[in-house]
Amino acid sequence: MKRQLKKVTSVCLGAILAASLTACGGNSAQQEPAVSAPVQNEQTTEEQKATESMESQASADVQESLWDLSGEITITAWNSSYTAIVEGADRFMEMHPEAKITVEQVADNTKLFTQLTTGTGVPDIMQFQNRDDLTAFDKYAGSFLDISDLMAKYEKDLVPAVIPLLKDGDTWLAAPWDVAPAMLFYRTDIFEECGVNPEDIKTWDDYIEAGKVINEKTNGKTKIMGFDYNGTSSFDMPLIIFYEQGGSFFDESGNVQFNSDAVTTAFGIFQKMIDEDIAMNLPNEWTDRITALANDSLCTVPYGVWFAGTLKENLADQAGKWSCIPLPAVEEGGNNQVNSGGSTVMVSSSTKYPELCKGFIEWFFLSTEGSRINMEVSTLFDAYMPAYTDESYTKTDEYFGMSPAALAAQLCEEIPDLPFPAYFTDIGQIFQSDAVGPVFVDGKDMDSVLTEATDKAQKQLEFLRNE
């Protein structure tokens, strides 16, 4: 299917990406009110349009002074990211008629991996899940353009945790798109009816106690946690507590270590939730979660800021019944900042138009104007921190009675470095299949399960490294 959006051509290559790929807006220079003018707290619509027009022109002028923006490029993106970048490409071409940008919608990167392997048909700019970046650098070495001349000057403006995923050694091979600071989404009406004060939830033990109260007050109808006990459809929930502790599937020597304190602590907390009957099993975690939320069987979800858009899209009738608070910590006063999702973009080393690629990346991913488009069109929380004072990030979202994006902006500066070394996804799949279900469903000894899964994953890692 093709559709023309002004000047941008969009090609649908697949179904909407699964939820695991769903998965971070004022000007960095704020406007000062004119001293001679009467006090006026809000700009008129016309003034806002004029301001945005000036910002667009300023961006265009800057780009023209740095990059040759003529040429024709193709970009691949998925799901809501696709919707946002279509709008961004359209606006960019209005400013730069000498540029032609085609945006292709993909369901995932299956086709891209084949293109990178064969070296044919590779798009000029391609979206990756940030967890796959370092694997791509290793597996497809030489396939990506060095964009250090663009990225190095923006390092101070980026969410610190994502920076290690953008570089191969000292060379910048990727630019960040969205990040996903995690928070606790909760049903305000259910909490109030059950007499639970969300401000009292500081630790996961507090969370468990709140769940017991809700379970009792609702006669077992409403649970505070839901996840796939078998891990087949997702293991995102245990990973949140794992990451909160700075956990990694690899030790300092680069060997697999599933049997770490971070894993056993996370598993222990979730086992306690099951034992206390405050959790529910979601065999198909994504769709079953939406169903459980719709019928009031589930009342909280700890997830990345992007989940705000999921709630609004799927549960519009619950507007005004949701809010967000920071995640509980393992220990009182401990870290409660976690990233849960996010993506990046890379440029093909074989592109004929590297300047156009870098110019578009700078405007769309490394400016307040581009971040505003991402937030307003697709509720994507960009990794470009100067945008976080923009009204698109700070204004109250009526669905929540607050701004999830503004909360996310407070929860991203101390996120532990993202533990996604090369082949993380491959090793994670073994953890998902060989560790989660055997512990939570089969009731096997945790230490034995984690040791066996570690041995299996280590053999697979050695195979991949020598492939």
Structural topology:
Layout: E1 2-5, E2 8-12, H1 45-66, E3 71-77, H2 79-95, E4 99-105, H3 110-118, E5 125-129, H4 133-139, H5 148-151, E6 167-168, E7 171-172, E8 175-187, H6 188-193, H7 204-217, E9 225-227, H8 236-244, H9 261-275, E10 279-281, H10 285-294, E11 300-304, H11 307-314, E12 322-325, E13 339-347, H12 354-365, H13 368-378, H14 391-394, H15 404-410, H16 424-440, H17 446-466
Parallel strand pairs: 2-4, 3-4, 3-5, 9-10
Antiparallel strand pairs: 1-2, 5-13, 6-7, 8-11, 8-12, 8-13
Helix pairs in contact: 1-12, 2-13, 8-9, 16-17
Would you give an account of this structure?
The protein contains 17 helices and 13 strands. It has helices spanning 45-66, 79-95, 110-118, 133-139, 148-151, 188-193, 204-217, 236-244, 261-275, 285-294, 307-314, 354-365, 368-378, 391-394, 404-410, 424-440, 446-466; strands at 2-5, 8-12, 71-77, 99-105, 125-129, 167-168, 171-172, 175-187, 225-227, 279-281, 300-304, 322-325, 339-347. Strands 1, 2, 3, 4, 5, 8, 11, 12 and 13 form a 9-stranded mixed β-sheet that branches. Strands 6-7 form a two-stranded antiparallel sheet. It is globular. Residues 1-47 and 53-65 have low confidence and may be disordered.
